[in-house]
């Protein structure tokens, strides 16, 4: 028999449950050990070049190997990834394959030397799979860089998803906090979220107090001009709104404070305040 | 419930002009109707009531200029509408306080049901436990039930509009008082 056929049948399977290890290992017991190792190498290469979901399967096989071997790698893997599929595979195939310990250790060793950095990807995907339960492929696009994977994988599952979501949320909040900092004057030099929030709160409060104060003033002015004006010409204002508003203010105050004395100055002030010139 | 995808607030100059027009119209209405209802009041109470009305008119004008795009303007508008519906039942209170304790959930249709609900979902957001965020939620109208990043968005827009409002009102006061 030639090993590539075995590898193709074993590794082209999509889900880890159908990819039964007992079949592989029984074949490998028939075959020679050298060919099996080489074949697994090629198979892992194929699966790595193919769909990325197979990384998880490969990871689970590695876990199973070291578990059957009973080495120290088992502890490490268990602490790292508590994948459900890996547990299932190890429990299903751990009883009848104890005679192939040496071969399996060799194969896992060859895998270790084969893909050093792609094992990190396998760990990351298995971590996200354990977070999502069985499916787990929806968390892949938002995966943070590698150092986060370390932290996330060392903790348990719930902490994983929580910390990930928490991190994304915190990023969102801090980005909006920057927008707020640009809005509030004098807030750019303040460092720290609490102080920035203090500044924002103070600014809003001062603005609201200003509104209150100004409305009191406006009320006083409004009652002083006790003759109710027969109507601001707001209904029939044309499309150029600034000129209309300037005319509005000008006509109002001119009627109140004497004709013809103020409008130029008022127009100037309006232009200054609205950032334009009338 | 996602104001970040909604269009941002319009040009500030445009905002100011529209606010000024609405506010002046509201002031004019106040001027027309102000002599009728409360002639029996003494001076101080009357002044207080009128200034409160002016303030409400200012906030309403700003909120109606912003429209229903923002949660805070929806809160203010809903509050004003509710106030005009049962005005006779309400006692005289500062406006901020009423907005805080009455408008909580203005985004849904349940707004009229849960009028006094204070902290409806306290476990949803650990960020809300900080005292400053609580304070901020009380300052921004309608912000008590938001996510915290929604809160930041709304706060930014509210600050913009409030600053424009203050500027226009200052201009008006200057216009009225100088001579």
Element string of chain B (H = helix, E = strand):
HHHHHH
Number of strands of chain A: 0
DSSP summary, beta strand count of chain B: 0
Q: What is the N-to-C order of secondary-structure elements of chain A (H for helix, E for strand)? A: HHHHHHHHHHHHH
How would a textbook summarize the main sheet of chain A?
none
Described by the principal axes of the CA atoms, the overall outline of chain B is globular
Low-confidence stretches of chain A: 1-40, 42-47, 49-158, 227-278
Largest interface (CB within 8 Å) is between: A-B, 59 and 61 residues
Q: Gyration radius of chain B, to the nearest Å? A: 17 Å
Note the beta-strand portion of chain A.
under 5%
What is the overall number of helices of chain A? 13
Helix content of chain B: 55-70%
Radius of gyration of chain A: 36 Å
Tell me the structural class of chain B: mainly alpha
End-to-end separation of chain A in angstroms reads 92 Å
Classification by helices and strands of chain A:
mainly alpha
Essential attributes:
heterodimer, A: 278 residues, mainly alpha, disordered N terminus, disordered C terminus, B: 179 residues, 6 helices, globular
Give the arrangement of secondary structure elements:
The complex is a heterodimer of chains A (278) and B (179).
Chain A: H1 3-11, H2 21-30, H3 33-49, H4 54-69, H5 73-80, H6 84-93, H7 101-114, H8 118-132, H9 146-154, H10 157-183, H11 193-224, H12 241-257, H13 263-273
Chain B: H1 12-33, H2 43-66, H3 71-85, H4 95-102, H5 131-139, H6 148-177
Summarize the structure.
Chain A is mainly α and 278 residues long. Chain A has 13 helices and no strands.
Written overview of the protein:
The complex is a heterodimer of chains A (278) and B (179). Chain A has 278 residues and is mostly helical. Chain A is built from 13 helices and no strands. In chain A, helix 8 crosses helix 10. With 179 residues, chain B is mainly alpha-helical. Helices cover 60% and strands 0% of the residues of chain B. Chain B contains six helices and no strands. In chain B, helix 1 runs antiparallel to helix 2. At the A-B interface, helix 10, helix 11, helix 12 and helix 13 of A face helix 1, helix 2, helix 5 and helix 6 of B.
């Amino acid at each position: 028999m030639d090993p590539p056929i075995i590898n193709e049948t074993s590794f082209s399977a999509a889900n880890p449950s159908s990819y039964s290890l007992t079949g592989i290992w029984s074949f490998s017991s028939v075959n020679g050990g050298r060919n099996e190792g080489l074949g697994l190498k090629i198979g892992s290469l194929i699966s790595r070049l193919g769909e990325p979901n197979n990384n998880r399967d490969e990871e689970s096989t590695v876990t199973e190997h070291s578990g059957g071997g009973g080495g120290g790698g088992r502890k490490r893997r268990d602490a790292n990834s508590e994948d459900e599929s890996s547990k299932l595979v190890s429990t299903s195939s751990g009883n009848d394959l104890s005679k192939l310990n040496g071969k399996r250790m060799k194969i896992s060793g060859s895998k270790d030397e084969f893909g050093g950095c792609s094992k990190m990807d396998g760990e990351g995907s298995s971590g996200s799979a354990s977070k999502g339960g069985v499916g787990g492929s929806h968390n892949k696009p938002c995966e943070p860089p590698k150092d986060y994977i370390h932290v996330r994988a060392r903790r348990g599952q719930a902490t994983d998803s929580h910390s990930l979501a928490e991190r994304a949320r915190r990023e969102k909040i801090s980005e909006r906090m920057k927008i707020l900092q640009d809005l509030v004057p004098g807030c750019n030099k303040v460092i720290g979220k609490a102080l920035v929030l203090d500044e924002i709160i103070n600014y809003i409060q001062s603005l609201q107090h200003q509104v209150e104060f100004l409305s009191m003033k406006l009320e006083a002015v409004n009652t002083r001009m006790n003759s109710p004006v027969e109507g601001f010409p707001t209904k029939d204002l044309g499309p150029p709104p600034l000129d209309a508003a300037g005319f509005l203010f000008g006509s109002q105050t001119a009627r109140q404070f004497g004709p013809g004395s103020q409008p130029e100055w008022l127009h100037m002030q309006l232009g200054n305040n609205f950032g334009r010139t009338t | 419930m996602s104001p970040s995808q909604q269009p941002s607030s319009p040009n500030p100059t445009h905002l100011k002009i529209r606010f000024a027009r609405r506010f002046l119209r509201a002031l004019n209405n106040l001027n027309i109707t102000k002599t009728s209802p409360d002639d029996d009041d003494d001076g101080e109470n009357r002044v207080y009531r009128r200034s409160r009305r002016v303030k409400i008119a200012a906030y309403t004008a700003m909120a109606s200029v912003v429209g229903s795009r923002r949660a805070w303007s929806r809160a203010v508008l809903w509050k004003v509408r509710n106030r005009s519906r049962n005005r006779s039942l309400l006692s005289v209170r500062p406006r901020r306080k009423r907005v805080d304790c009455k408008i909580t959930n203005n985004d849904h249709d349940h707004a009229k049901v849960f009028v006094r609900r204070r902290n409806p979902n306290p476990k949803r957001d650990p960020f809300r436990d900080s005292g400053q965020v609580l304070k901020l939620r009380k300052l921004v109208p309608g912000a008590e039930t938001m996510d915290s990043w929604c809160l930041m968005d709304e706060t930014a827009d509210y600050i913009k509009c409030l600053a424009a409002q203050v500027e226009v009102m200052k201009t008006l006061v200057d216009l009225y008082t100088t001579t």
